[in-house]
Write a structure and sequence with these properties.
With about 240 residues, the protein is mainly α. About 80% of the residues lie in helices and about 0% in strands.
Length: about 240
C-alpha cells in the first residue's frame, strides 16, 4: 500500500488556501439539512479514490514482480521506483480533477442559499422570540429551579425522618421482644394475669417502703432520746 496521507493533507490545504470551497456561515445549516458535513463527505470520497489508485498500482507492481518474463529484464529496485512514479503521476492527475469536482459539489450540490429556510426553522420566522418572551422563559426556569431546590430540601428532611422512624422502630422491636420474654416467664411461673400481679407487687412494695420509713423514724427518735439522757459528771467540793 502506497502512502498518500501527506499528499492528501497538502491537497486540502491548497484547496482551502485558493478559496475553491471556503467555509461559509451556513456550514452548520448545511450539516443540519444533510445530516453530515459536506467537507467530511468530500474527504471520504477523496480517501476512497486514492486508496483505489494505491491498490491498482500495488496489484500492477506484484504482477510484474511475479511474472518470470520480466524478472531478467528489470530489477526489483527499478520496478519499485517505476511503481512509485506511476502512483505519484496518477495521484497528481486525480488531485487536479478532484479539485474541480470538489468545487462544483460545494457550490452547486451541498450549498444552501442564504434565502432558504428549513421547514423546522420556519416557526422561528413566523413567530420570533421577543425580549419579553425570553425574560418570561427565564423567570419560569428560575421558578422551576426554586421548586427543585425545595423538593430536594423536603426529600432531605424526609430521609432524616425515616432514619428517626427506623431508630424508634428498633427500640419498639426490642421492647416487644422483652415483653414476649416476660410473658414466657409468667407462663412458666403460672402467672395468669400479669396486670394484677404487677399491681400486687407494686402495692406490697409501697407497704414495705412505708414500713421501712416508719422504722427509720422510730430509730431516729430513739437515737435522739439517748443523746438527751447522756451522763453528766458532778464535781466534788
Amino acid at each position: 500500500m502506497f502512502e498518500f496521507s501527506a499528499r492528501m493533507a497538502s491537497n486540502q490545504g491548497e484547496s482551502s488556501a485558493t478559496g475553491l470551497h471556503p467555509l461559509t456561515d451556513r456550514k452548520e445549516y448545511e450539516t443540519q439539512y444533510f445530516g453530515f458535513t459536506p467537507k467530511s463527505f468530500v474527504d471520504g470520497v477523496y480517501n476512497a479514490m486514492v486508496e483505489y489508485l494505491s491498490d491498482f498500482v500495488e496489484v500492477t507492481h506484484k504482477y510484474f514482480l511475479d511474472d518470470e518474463r520480466f524478472k531478467e529484464q528489470i530489477s526489483v529496485e527499478a520496478l519499485q521506483e517505476s511503481s512509485n512514479r506511476l502512483f505519484v503521476h496518477l495521484r497528481d492527475a486525480f488531485d487536479k480533477a478532484f479539485d474541480r469536482l470538489e468545487n462544483y459539489l460545494m457550490k452547486n450540490i451541498f450549498h444552501i442559499p442564504s434565502g432558504i429556510v428549513l421547514p423546522e426553522d420556519k416557526v422561528h420566522m413566523s413567530d420570533p422570540v421577543t425580549e419579553s418572551m425570553d425574560q418570561k422563559l427565564d423567570n419560569e426556569l428560575e421558578e422551576l429551579r426554586e421548586k427543585i431546590r425545595n423538593a430536594q430540601y423536603v426529600n432531605c428532611r424526609l430521609q432524616k425522618w425515616l432514619q428517626d422512624v427506623d431508630s424508634v422502630q428498633h427500640v419498639l422491636d426490642s421492647l416487644l421482644a422483652q415483653l414476649q420474654k416476660w410473658q414466657m416467664v409468667c407462663r412458666e411461673s403460672n402467672v395468669t394475669d400479669l396486670g394484677e400481679t404487677i399491681s400486687f407487687v407494686a402495692d406490697r412494695t409501697r407497704q414495705l417502703l412505708t414500713q421501712c420509713n416508719a422504722m427509720k423514724a422510730t430509730q431516729a427518735e430513739r437515737n435522739n432520746n439517748v443523746k438527751g439522757s447522756r451522763y453528766v459528771p458532778v464535781k466534788l467540793q
